[in-house]
Specification:
Elements lengths: L6 H20 L2 H5 L4 H23 L8 H21 L5 H8 L2 H11 L6 H19 L12 H19 L6 H25 L21 H27 L2 H7 L3 H13 L5 H19 L12
Helix pairs in contact: 1-10, 1-12, 3-9, 3-10, 4-8, 4-9, 5-7, 5-8, 6-8, 6-11, 7-13, 8-10, 9-10
């Protein structure tokens, strides 16, 4: 019997693996944030990831030299800027509001793939993204819909940059290896982290105690616990991001993006399991809507032919 490898189903499985691993490791950022700053964390994690990739390169036959340095650098810069804006907004906005802004990325993916690259997206996928975003708002709660201001636009800007980075993965970097994109992703974030450390050293500012000083804290001498949890973050992120990048390489960005909504229910699950955080009824209903949105994408995957990029 002949079997068919459906790229959308495979991509969904890869994103599920990504969300499971990231949901676990990200729940321990609060432990890191209590001692060390965002910038030092990213620099340290990047060094660990680069070391792991170099150790794995020869035995696993990894090819990390990019075919197009410009394309990989552009993609890394887009994702790096998105994550730095996202984390920077956490300094003065509620986490729920920041997360809601970042999860506008699939909407930007749909708009860009349709009007820039000419891909057919279909009414079902438009409705699926809308339904998924409603689910996200319900999971995050009322706080995600309040506080409209200039500052509140920052997470939305992060969502736009994140969407552009996701699209370039397939449109510009489809021929690159997963390990090349993984190295570029973390290298970009690491360089931004190093830049932040340099600026905070040259222009130090007041730092709050504990996790409240995560974004404004410069270099500190950390404990062994920091290095352990950063290593857990590095190893988990390396595996998870590689799975997500592969998903975006094998399937259309506007389809894969919807599956990223799995991040929220899985992060909430790990939060409940690790920290006994409870979910509201609205949050659980939101997760149901997110699941339905992903199913709509999978069931309608072959209805319309994809159009070749026009740009």
């Amino acid at each position: 019997m002949k079997t068919t490898r459906d790229p959308v189903v495979l991509a969904a499985c890869l994103v599920l693996g990504f969300a499971t691993v990231i949901g676990f490791t990200d729940n321990f950022v609060r432990v890191i944030a209590a001692e060390v700053g965002l910038w030092q964390f990213h620099v340290t994690r990047t060094l660990m990831i680069v070391a792991m990739l170099l150790l794995l390169a020869r035995p696993m036959g990894l090819r990390m030299r990019p075919k197009s340095l410009r394309a990989v650098a552009a993609r890394s810069a887009l994702h790096g800027v998105a994550l730095m804006i996202y984390f920077g907004a956490l300094a003065f906005l509620p986490v729920a509001l920041v997360a809601a802004g970042l999860f506008t990325a699939p909407i930007f993916v749909l708009l860009i793939t349709r009007f820039v690259y000419g891909h057919s997206i279909g009414i079902v996928r438009v409705l699926a993204v809308a339904l998924g975003f409603v689910g996200v708002a319900m999971v995050l709660g009322r706080e995600a819909l309040e506080g409209a201001s200039l500052a509140a636009l920052m997470p939305v800007v992060a969502g736009a940059f994140y969407a552009m980075g996701n699209i370039t993965t397939r449109e510009w970097c489809a021929q690159e290896t997963t390990e090349t994109l993984t190295l570029g992703f973390f290298a970009g974030i690491g360089m931004l982290g190093l830049l932040g450390l340099i600026l905070l050293t040259l222009f130090p500012i007041a730092v709050a105690d504990g996790a409240q000083g995560f974004v404004t804290r410069g270099w500190v001498w950390p404990s062994g616990a920091f290095y352990w949890w950063t290593f857990v973050q590095a190893a988990g992120s390396l595996i998870a991001v590689a799975m997500l990048m592969r998903a975006y390489q094998i399937a259309e960005a506007s389809r894969v993006a919807v599956f990223e909504y799995l991040n929220l229910p899985l992060a909430a699950f790990w939060g409940w399991l690790l920290w006994q955080e409870q979910l509201t009824g609205h949050a659980m209903l939101g997760m149901v809507l997110i699941t339905i949105a992903g199913a709509m994408i999978a069931l309608r995957r072959a209805q319309l032919p994809e159009v070749s990029p026009t740009a």
